[in-house]
Design a protein that fits this description.
alpha/beta; Rossmann fold; Glucose Oxidase, domain 1; 2 domains; eight-stranded mixed sheet; six-stranded mixed sheet
Length: 333
């Protein structure tokens, strides 16, 4: 399927914030106001869709209603980009209710992460839409934004280029609950850089996201074609060493690790205990020992900050010599 590129965002554009997964019950009005002001400082207008406050089995609404919100958002000419409030649970409810032709005919920027991995993956696979795994609205609900995160967000979504080189951020924050204390300055740590498990250079279209959420598609008609792809994965603060190893074993057993051309692993929150003797390299070393492609860990992907904005579906290149990820074609128009 030929790829469809969304129109780039411009200063003054309107972002509609939606919740395809969990609702925003319990999120304070003050926190939302901080997010709206920060997005305004970044040059955009943001509006929270009323359905974000809905309630249906822990989500923001019945599957058909959540799908309608997305359809209406893509069709609405006054909406320039769609940003997910956060992830949560059960965006896979929507898949049988979505009109891929409608979405393909009305391409626009769509961005989110975590449980939104399902949407990121299937929008590319079924609609051919280049979309973005990256910061959600909740990412911007802190008084202290990370400049690298904002710069990459704007570079990818506002500035069309033939190629773009992504390298490690200068610092990071490992606090998955930072949004619960928005007025407290976050503790930044110097970033020692991405860590190389397997050296090399390879190319492939970029796909992936939250590991457990991605694997929710395994065995369904929505599982992505991984042959020749560069797979990026991450884990949230609720993960633990045993479960992460089990999920990697599942990737191996369904043949995914034999198909891909490269593996990128995001920085996993320290609270998971995946450190030291239980580092990601130790946990999965025997599972990936025969891999003949580049593997990089500790990348700026997922549930620590900053979060890189990654274009799903774009031809990319991993180069471990200079620890970079290069997008080899435009991802917006």
């Amino acid at each position: 399927m030929e790829l469809v590129l969304p129109e780039r965002l411009r200063e003054g554009d309107n972002l509609l914030v939606v919740a395809p997964s969990s609702n925003i019950e319990g999120v304070s009005r003050g926190l939302i106001q901080i997010g709206l002001k920060n997005i305004e400082k970044m040059g955009f207008n943001a509006e929270i869709h009323p359905s974000c406050k809905g309630s249906y089995k822990g989500t923001s609404g019945p599957p058909s209603e959540r799908a309608k919100v997305l359809h209406d958002s893509f069709k609405n000419d006054e909406v320039d980009g769609i940003m997910c409030f956060w992830g949560g649970w059960n965006s896979n409810d929507l898949l049988d209710h979505l009109d891929w032709g409608l979405i393909r005919a009305n391409p626009k920027v769509f961005i989110g992460y975590s449980d939104i991995t399902v949407m990121n993956t299937v929008l590319y696979e079924k609609a051919g839409l280049v979309n973005f795994q990256g910061p959600a609205f909740i990412t911007f609900t802190h008084e202290f934004l990370m400049p690298w995160e904002v710069r990459v967000f704007k570079d990818i979504l506002m500035r069309p280029t033939e190629t773009y080189q992504l390298k490690a951020s200068p610092s990071y924050v490992d606090d998955p609950y930072y949004y619960k204390h928005p007025d407290k300055e976050v503790k930044k740590s110097p970033n020692p850089g991405w860590r190389i498990i397997n050296n090399g250079r390879s190319r492939g279209r970029l796909i992936g996201g939250h590991l457990g959420t991605l694997l929710a598609l395994a065995g369904t008609g929505y599982w992505p074609e991984l042959e020749g792809k560069i797979l990026f994965i991450e884990e949230d603060e609720g993960g633990n060493p045993k479960n992460v190893r089990r999920l990697f074993r599942q990737l191996e057993q369904i043949g995914a690790l034999d198909e891909i051309n490269g593996l990128l692993i995001g920085r996993i929150p320290e609270v998971t205990g995946i450190r030291g003797d239980l580092s990601i390299e130790s946990l999965i070393g025997d599972i990936i020992e025969e891999a003949d492609y580049p593997i990089i860990t500790e990348m700026d992907i997922g549930h620590t900050n900053p979060i890189a904005t990654l274009p799903v579906g774009i031809m990319s290149e991993i180069t471990t010599d200079d620890e970079s990820l290069i997008f080899l074609e435009p991802c917006i128009k």
